[in-house]
Amino acid sequence: EPVLASSLGFCKPVPVLKGAPLHCCLPAPRRFPIRFRFPRIPRTFSGRPILRERKPAHILQNDPEYVRKYNLAYARMKALPDTDPRSFLNQWRVHCSFCNEAFRQRKTPGPLGPETGVLLQVHYSWTFLPWHRMYLYYHERILASLINDPTFALPFWNWDNQLDQDAAKMPAMFLPNFGIPNAALFDEFRNSNHFPPKLLYLGYNSKLEAEGQQNLTDQQIKYENLCVMYNQVTTKISARDFLGGPYVVGTDNSAATVNVSAGETPGESGGMESVHNVAHEWTGLINDPDHPDNEDMGNFIYAARDPIFYTHHSNVDRLWDVWKTIPDKVTKSGDRKRMDFMSRDFLDTEFTFFDENQDMVIVKVRDSLDSSKLGYKYTDVSESDNMWIY
Ligand code: C2O
């Protein structure tokens, strides 16, 4: 049975290692929740859809006009009152609550249906990619509406790209002393040892780094990054291997079910989620005794407090689209492309978000599967994709 939208009626604080438990609960909706509808997509005179284009961060940061808009959108989002579901605080809370078991799963649709006792967790399963796609979809629409620019699109941090000089570095537009005002994109809780010119290493392991065992040359990092992408994306042919295992009513993927400090994860993550975790850990404060929670990016509880989170996830989301275009070579079944799950349990799974009008919206996984229907696309960077695909 699919997990349906939560009423968000029950909400518990989220424990952290240092400090008091965090309050990640969301403001109550002003109106009754509405059902998702596909956005109306503008068209050219000849009828071609005009999609928002998400471009690589390492390219966009050379465009002062884009950086100015991007920073302004976050500045305005951060200035909204705490009661506004569009505020940066509440955008963070959406991730913190759904990703750290503040809510309960529910059984039947509608805001009054009964809940199961199981806590809601959107990581570690097939909900990972669809949930984060819809999270970014609304986040982007909110940013766009705050600067009255319907064409505004998030950048993507193209860390799998080993071809372009700056692609796998922490994008400079998020860092201090960038030159163009970018204060709203900055976050102090990042690992400064990994600032440029360091390359994001997809085989990164903080324990090994602490033991001095991760001193690789750029050449080695690039080579290993291609191997990681090949192993976690190209060779993951089935939906289950790429997106993750089933998540249905009663599935308990809460962190409490495993020994997290021993490196265990609950549920069954797909290859895409595993790669994504590494970039989180590499970006946050790690191996710092004052920050045992590895904030911000190194811990799902805090991660969405860092604006870089959304550009990281933009690349994860892009790679889902790329994965579907990889011809299935391994089974030699001709040109078959990889496919998402087709079961009702997957397609009818529901999520709850707030949109740019502050309305609570109920979305189904089936609505998330085609990014063009959601009105956006990614810049084609197949030259670098193909380096790890083949
Ligand atoms: Cu919900 Cu990158 O995590």
UniProtKB/TrEMBL annotation:
CC cofactor: Cu(2+)
GO molecular function (one): catechol oxidase activity
Keywords (A to Z) from UniProt: Copper, Disulfide bond, Metal-binding, Oxidoreductase, Thioether bond
Tyrosinase copper-binding domain mapped to chain residues: 123-140, 306-317
Homology family: Belongs to the tyrosinase family.
Protein name stated in the entry: Tyrosinase copper-binding domain-containing protein
Full-length numbering of the shown residues: 142 to 531 of 711
